[in-house]
Design goal:
73% of the residues lie in helices and 2% in strands. The chain has 256 residues and is an all-alpha fold.
Length: 256
């Protein structure tokens, strides 16, 4: 079998030049947090596992911004980021939810966890292929970090409301199937990469941001869960609203 690197010498030359350290270190931080989430899950510490998956999401949001701000974006970084995302936002939350809520369902439970992982992998692969052709303001399908954060915040909300140990709730089973479907769907999700968001805004935006920070600090479990559930449902709800609008819109009258 021929090695594709030798068929394309320019790729080999690119690797010989080295890789960018700073953005890849941030990606490694995301991978580390996701891996420790797996370790915490194995040890039965589901709350710690959930927090570390959310921390991984913070690192994941930073690595791309660091690469763009420092002009160190590379194909190696994109591929490394996808592999780290599959571990931190695919395997880690699937294992967490399986041990925490899906184990009592037997085969249905672990198949749901596997479906989440494979849909997450497909979502990442599709994203890498579509990057040159899709506008940066939109994601096609629910991003896998948002799906993982929804599951993690669900666990944290359970503990905040006084729960302990494991649960057996059909709602969690439905949630993981829903997340798997949304990741491979064609619903457009806001990416928050729009440069316009960083420009001047009305004073009320600053006040709302301060209030949001206060709420997060006061009740992080409730606010984080609410934010990600709203984001998860935003695209399908908007799609349905547009569909109903165009369906009810009267057809233009033909001129006589």
């Amino acid at each position: 079998m021929k090695n594709p690197l030798f068929e394309h010498p320019e790729r080999l030359e690119t690797l010989r030049k080295g890789v960018y350290i700073v953005p890849n270190l941030v990606t490694t931080g995301s991978l580390f947090a996701g891996f420790y989430g797996i370790v915490a899950t194995i040890n039965g510490d589901y709350r710690t596992a959930s927090w570390f998956i959310l921390v991984s999401g913070i690192f994941d949001a930073l690595d791309g911004k660091v690469a763009r701000l420092t002009g160190t974006t590379s194909r190696f970084g994109i591929e490394y980021d996808s592999l780290a995302d599959l571990v931190a936002f695919g395997v880690a939350p699937a294992l967490l939810i399986y041990n925490w809520a899906l184990r009592p369902y037997g085969k249905i439970g672990w198949l749901a966890a596997f479906l989440y992982v494979v849909c997450g992998a497909l979502r990442l692969a599709r994203f890498n292929v579509q990057v040159p052709f899709v506008e940066s303001r939109r994601f096609v399908g629910l991003p896998i970090p948002a799906a993982a954060s929804t599951l993690s915040s669900c666990v944290l909300l359970f503990y905040y409301l006084g729960g302990s140990g494991t649960v057996k709730m059909v709602s969690v089973l439905i949630l993981i199937y829903l997340l798997a479907f949304l990741m491979i769907s064609n619903f457009p999700y806001v990416s928050f990469k729009d440069p316009e968001l960083l420009k001047r805004r009305p004073f009320a935006f600053l006040v709302l941001a301060i209030v949001a920070i206060i709420v997060i600090v006061a009740r992080p479990e409730i606010f984080i869960f609410t934010i990600f559930v709203v984001y998860m449902l935003s695209a399908p709800v908007l799609h349905m609203a547009r569909f109903l609008y165009w369906r009810r819109k009267p057809a233009p009258k033909k001129s006589e």
